[in-house]
Structure formats: structure tokens, C-alpha cells
């Protein structure tokens, strides 16, 4: 009985110390930023599209994972180099995935630098006018 009580006390101490940790006290977890990616990095169109397929699926936010992965599967392989770069800038330049989501579903106005043919196509895709059940495509 004494061992169990000691174990529970140890767990409480560990949990409370984690909550008061200096490394997490200053972090605002309500607004997590997307890691910066250099979209102007030279790479072949094939490699850029392969990276974008992966990045479209692995956003860290289920809503965008679903919208962007199904969008990329449907359209990305047919994009020109210019369209691919526009899509790359769209998903890798904003600092927060919620911003991208709100622009796509038209809950917030799209900034001018992202208001282009790719965003228009994404907005139409998000409306899902054919009412098709969407699920993430397999990675390969």
C-alpha cells in the first residue's frame, strides 16, 4: 500500500513539474506556426510535386490534411510549373494552418498574394458540390 501511495505521489510531482516547466510556460499553443520552408529553393518540378503531395497530407491539422491531400491528388500532377509554385507558396508561406483553412472555406478574406487561380480551385474543391465522401489518399 505504501509503495502504491509513493508511486502516485511521484506521478503527481512529475505532472505538476511538467505543467510549470519554463520551456512550456511562454509557448502560446493556441497559435502554432508552420515551420518555415524556402519555397524559392531550386528543385525539379517532379521533386517539388512529390514534396507537395507529402506536405499536403501531413499538415498537423486534420481539416487541412483532408482538404489539401485530396486537392493535391486530384489536381497537382496536372499543374504547370507556375501553378505548382503558386500552390507551394500558398501552403508553405503563411505562418498558420488555420489561416489557410479559413481562406479556403471563405470564413476570412484571402490576402492578395494568395488570391489566385489555385486558391479559386481550392475553394471550389472545398465546397465539394458533388458531395463525394473525401478521405486521404495513400502516400503510395
Summarize the structure.
With 140 residues, the protein is mainly α. Helices cover 57% and strands 0% of the residues. α3 packs parallel to α5 (81-92).
Description of the molecule:
This protein is mainly alpha-helical. The chain is 57% helix and 0% strand. It has 7 helices and no strands. The protein has helices at residues 2-19, 22-25, 45-57, 62-75, 81-92, 97-104, 117-127. Helix 3 (45-57) packs antiparallel against helix 4 and helix 3 (45-57) packs parallel to helix 5 (81-92). The radius of gyration is 20 Å and the shape is globular. The model is unreliable at 17-21 (pLDDT under 50).
- List how many beta strands DSSP finds: 0
Indicate the structural class.
mainly alpha
Helix content: 55-70%
Low-confidence stretches: 17-21
Kindly provide the radius of gyration, computed on alpha-carbon positions and rounded to a whole number of angstroms: 20 Å
Residue fraction in strands: under 5%
Shape from CA axes? globular
Helical region count?
Answer: 7
Task: Please write the string of helix (H) and strand (E) elements.
Answer: HHHHHHH
Largest sheet: none
The pLDDT mean sits at 80
Kindly report how far apart the N and C termini lie. 53 Å
Amino acid at each position: 500500500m505504501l509503495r502504491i501511495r509513493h508511486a502516485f505521489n511521484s506521478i503527481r510531482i512529475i505532472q505538476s513539474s511538467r505543467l510549470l516547466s519554463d520551456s512550456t510556460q511562454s509557448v502560446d499553443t493556441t497559435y502554432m506556426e508552420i515551420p518555415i520552408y524556402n519555397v524559392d529553393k531550386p528543385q525539379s518540378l517532379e521533386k517539388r510535386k512529390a514534396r507537395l503531395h507529402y506536405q499536403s497530407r501531413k499538415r498537423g491539422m486534420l481539416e487541412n490534411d483532408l482538404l489539401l491531400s485530396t486537392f493535391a491528388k486530384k489536381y497537382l500532377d496536372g499543374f504547370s510549373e507556375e501553378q505548382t509554385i503558386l500552390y507551394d507558396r500558398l501552403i508553405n508561406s503563411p505562418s498558420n494552418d488555420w489561416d489557410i483553412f479559413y481562406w479556403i472555406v471563405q470564413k476570412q478574406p484571402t490576402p492578395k498574394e494568395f488570391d489566385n487561380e489555385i486558391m479559386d480551385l481550392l475553394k471550389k474543391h472545398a465546397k465539394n458540390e458533388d458531395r463525394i465522401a473525401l478521405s486521404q489518399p495513400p502516400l503510395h
